[in-house]
Amino acid sequence: MEILGQLEVVEERYEKLNELLSDPDVVSDTKKLMEYSKEQRSIEKTVAVFREYKNIVQQIADTKELLEIEEDKEMKEMMQEEIKELEPSLAPMEEELKILLLPKDPNDGKNVVVEVRGAAGGDEAQLFAGDLLRMYTRFAESQGWKVDVLERSETGIGGIKEAIFIISGEDVYSKMKFESGAHRVQRVPTTESSGRIHTSTATVVVLPEAEEIEIDINENDIRVDTFASSGAGGQSVNTTMSAVRLTHIPTGVVVSMQDERSQIKNKEKAMKVLRARVYDKYQQEEQAKFDAERKSKVGTGDRSERIRTYNYPQNRVTDHRIGLTIQKLDQIMEGKLDEVLEALRIAEQADRTGDELIELSEYLLAILHQFLVRDTFEQIVHAATL
């Protein structure tokens, strides 16, 4: 289907969704209401840009039509100037519309469950894991997102063995999804007396938060174990059996939670993480069926993949997936991740933009410009969709 035809279909669907969201039957059905609201948000920007684009196209066509019959020299000059000002705005909007029509990651609009763990490097790896937790917290705050720490296992020297937290907000997964993988740090540890640079790693897992309507987990498939929670070094935190371990028997996914003193609260938090992990596991299995070997410029999503190096002596951060190097490590560790994540987003979009789509787009847009000289937008759409 041609691009203009696609955009018309998207706009029609948007109008239909507006009607559905005002339907009392839909409003009273939580599942349908969430489903339609989510779909509407996903195409809202596409429709807004398309409508602005159509408006400019119409203005140009109308002005050119008047220009043909206008006899006043001064008026003709004004019209030509107006066309000259409007036409350059079309090309950037055409490029944006091509990108907006690309298939989107269905998880982009979701909240995320993030797991950060110290890996190779002992105490230094755990200290770096703590630094990453702080970096993501600062970044979330800058985006207006909310951070809810579910589990945090600290070391005696200020690092963390493991932290699990949820980030909630608008389109969180669309940015945070690039953070899954192994993060390597090169620096002189605070525990190093001889001044030698050490290399350590911490791992980050970012999972889209699964809603209950998206994945149905049968309670009979979950084994619940309770035990007394413990702190650093294994000492007892309390004598009640407040800690909870959930095992999803069909997949073997296990989640433990002991952050709260209440067993009920620990179970609620554990269920959120379990649901996200099981959802992620099912998604990976489905993806493997269709495209087991697919790789992209922004990485495979493999949890063990080394995605980024943080070199403290040189104040340098290198993202190995796209070969990006930035001499702003100090700013990045303060949560200023926008430059890195934007580069990854652009690389992902470029990878998804197929040659066939580009050729088709250029062909149709050439038709559009050809007709702009003499026809209205309605005629353009008709010609392009024949």
Name the helix and strand elements from N-terminus to C-terminus, one letter apiece: HHHHHEHEEHEEEEEHEEEHHHH
User: Spatial order of the strands in the main sheet?
Assistant: 2-3-1-5-4-9-10-11
Distance between the termini: 10 Å
Structural class: alpha+beta
**Sheet with the most strands, sense and barrel status:** 8 strands, mixed
* CATH class call of the largest domain: Alpha Beta
Beta-strand content estimate: 15-25%
When the domains are counted, the total is: 3
Task: Please count the beta strands (DSSP E, at least 2 residues each).
Answer: 11
- Can you give the helix content as a percent range? 40-55%
CATH architecture of the largest domain: 2-Layer Sandwich
Q: In the CATH scheme, what's the topology name of the largest domain? A: Alpha-Beta Plaits
Radius of gyration: 27 Å
Q: What is the overall pLDDT average?
A: 78
| Oligomeric state, counting identical vs distinct chains | single chain
Low-confidence stretches: 232-236, 292-304, 355-360, 367-381
